[in-house]
Amino acid sequence: MAGGVSVAGEVTFVFEEEELRAMSPQDRVRLLHTLAEIDGTGTARRPASLPRRSARRRQVVLVVIIACCIILAIWTGFLAVTLPRFYRSGGWRGAWVGFDIVLLATLSATGWAAWRGRQVLIICLIVLATLLLCDAWFDVVLDLRTPGIQLSLLTAVAVELPLAGLAIAGARRLLRLTIAMVTERQGQQAPVPPLWRIPLFGDSPSDNFRDMFPQIRHGSGEAGDRPIPEPAERDG
Length: 236
Hints:
Layout: E1 2-5, E2 11-14, H1 17-22, H2 25-40, H3 49-82, H4 92-116, H5 120-142, H6 149-185, H7 205-212, H8 214-218
Helix pairs in contact: 4-5, 5-6
């Protein structure tokens, strides 16, 4: 370890490259973790109002979501009782052609994001899966007791549902790879937990990363459902 003197006269230490290469992988991980925690202390200098604002925003969003769920449940029950079983509708061509145009635009955006390798691909895949599931649902439901039901069922089972499943799986994989790379650069190497267990990133990233993998702090052997891949395995 090489020594030096800083401007303020304090003794500082700098690792030489040979010393870093001589360290064990475990020592390098601990060093990265320590450096990440030191760098993360800068977030503590943020105004104290920022975490409170973030908490208030989440509370407002939660209240809005709960209110929407209650209203939607009441509205769904009302429609189930009052809507006629059969209904002749206008604008049929415009509704389906418009939907397919949106689906085509989403497919195009997904292809562009995959080709360019952009993080927006995760959002595109989720939107694409949602549209495909909606397409399959309405195709089958609206074609019940009609001659077109067999074709609708075939396209839903053979095309739309498998593509939606692939899109969801791809979005999940990309999210986990992104989290794995970010946490590894923060000096933490541990199995990536399931997405439903990973907290949202907020105003204090260093705290979020420490909370994401508590087994690193406590030394426990708790594991998630997949370890962090080595760089050579990150193909997407």
